[in-house]
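=== RUN LOG ===
request id: a7f3
mode: sequence -> structure
chains: 1
length: 124
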Amino acid sequence: MWKRITIYCAAMSFWKVFSIGLVLAILIEAITVGLRFGLGLESTRHTTAVGTLTLGLRIHHGYIGVFLVLLGWCFPRGLRHALWIVAFGLIFSDLAHHFLVLWPITGSPQFDFVYPTHPYWRRD
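=== RESULT ===
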């Protein structure tokens, strides 16, 4: 199955990879909005345990997407395109969430680079 997926992805043009990545971004964003506004979850509040592992730095899923774009260059075309689909989905979902959803609704993009409550970054 994995081999068939990579063969299919290898035959895709860049624009098809990009388009599927945008569709994936919409799906990821729908889940993110559901978790944020439906269940009331907030990443700075509910993932603070991760901050202890990252020394208080916030890891947005867009960062992981940028990493996957760069990592994709290390692999053959099929796997590269599959990674890029996921990467574009993560990058555009993160940007849309902060700048098209949160900013208009809450008045702040909440694009924090650090966890504000982490001891390294707290301003007392």
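=== NOTES ===
Residues 2-106 form one domain.
The mean pLDDT is 85.
=== END ===
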